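In this section we turn from sequence analysis to structure. A common task in structural bioinformatics is to predict how a protein folds when a small molecule is present, because the ligand can shape the pocket around it. The inputs are simple: the amino acid sequence and a SMILES string for the ligand, here flavin mononucleotide. Study the lines below before reading on.
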Amino acid sequence: MKILLVYVSKTGNTEKVARSFARGLGGEIDVVKLDLSPEGVLKEFQPKFTLDAGPYDLFCLAAWVMVMKVHPFLALASYIRECRNLEGKKVAVCLTGGAGLSRNHAYEDLLHILEEKKVKLIGFSYTTTLLGLTLTRKKLEKAEQFGQEIRRLVEQGG
Ligand SMILES: Cc1cc2nc3c(=O)[nH]c(=O)nc-3n(C[C@H](O)[C@H](O)[C@H](O)COP(=O)(O)O)c2cc1C
């Protein structure tokens, strides 16, 4: 199974979750970290660089929440919109946020980001971090278990 994992992380929480998730997934994973920070090269969507989900059986996305929205919504949405061959692919998503309160709002946002591509969202996880203070080993283990579940699902044709 070939997997593409694309993630965004400003202070490292999502990166840790993404790593644990990837450990759980196992196998061959290509990882792309998008630098969408204001300081980063990709401050705005760079049309010269686009993702191609074509060779992959599973597309995974990890991102974080700011002001109750998937962040940075517009830039991420642009990458997803321009991502080639994503239509109909299986997708699993990990979001991190300071508080559980933002979960549902961020989930709705995520659906907006993905809806145009008509992907099959086979899994969603939300990890609370309280800016990193409560990102415990247990939560990272849960992210790893989530990865294992997703692998099982894909292998079973789910
Ligand atoms: C400016 C700012 C705004 C944030 N807004 C929210 C929010 O609305 N809801 C929430 O749950 N977490 C919020 N957070 C917390 C982050 O989502 C959380 O710390 C996340 O794990 C950061 O991921 P990262 O370390 O990968 O960048 C905010 C963090 C920052 C810095």
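The radius of gyration is 14 Å. As an exercise, try to locate the residues that line the flavin mononucleotide site and compare them with your own expectations.
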